[in-house]
């Protein structure tokens, strides 16, 4: 028995058949070439479609950030008192975190001071 082909399956079948090699001679042609797919290159339009999809995802992620900021600005224009409360709350949180931390515990992290003792997040919102 002779097994043709260069694929992994053909080699495995060839080794398996060689173990059971008997004195009888059979003329069987076992090739997997009829089943294998002929490789071909992808059309350029498919590459273009993939690039456009990746660019759209990147664009939407950037637009999402700025739309969130715009939403806050629009809400602030309609509800100025609420915006004033929000800014005051954030300012107070910043002041409290700076007051709690001794200067020796502060470490520089990118563009702001971060305190090891203030990472518990125990500051609560108290509207006045």
TrEMBL record:
Keyword field contains Glycoprotein: no
A GO-annotated cellular component: membrane
Annotated Pfam families: DC_STAMP (PF07782)
Keywords assigned by UniProt, alphabetized: Membrane, Transmembrane, Transmembrane helix
Membrane-spanning residues: 46-66
Subcellular location: Membrane
All residue ranges annotated as the Dendritic cell-specific transmembrane protein-like domain in the record: 1-91
Protein name from the UniProt record: Dendritic cell-specific transmembrane protein-like domain-containing protein
Source organism of the structure: Knipowitschia caucasica
Taxonomic lineage of the native organism: Eukaryota, Metazoa, Chordata, Craniata, Vertebrata
């Amino acid at each position: 028995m002779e097994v043709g082909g260069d694929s992994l399956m053909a080699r495995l079948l060839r080794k398996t058949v060689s173990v059971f090699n008997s004195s009888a001679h059979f003329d069987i042609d076992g090739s997997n070439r009829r089943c294998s797919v002929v490789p071909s290159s992808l059309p350029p339009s498919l590459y273009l479609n993939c690039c456009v999809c990746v660019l759209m995802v990147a664009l939407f992620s950037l637009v999402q950030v700025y739309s969130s900021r715009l939403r806050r600005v629009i809400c602030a224009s309609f509800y100025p008192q609420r915006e004033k409360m929000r800014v005051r709350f954030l300012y107070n949180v910043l002041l409290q975190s700076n007051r709690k931390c001794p200067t020796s515990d502060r470490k520089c992290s990118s563009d702001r001071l971060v305190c090891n003792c203030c990472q518990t997040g125990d500051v609560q919102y108290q509207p006045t």
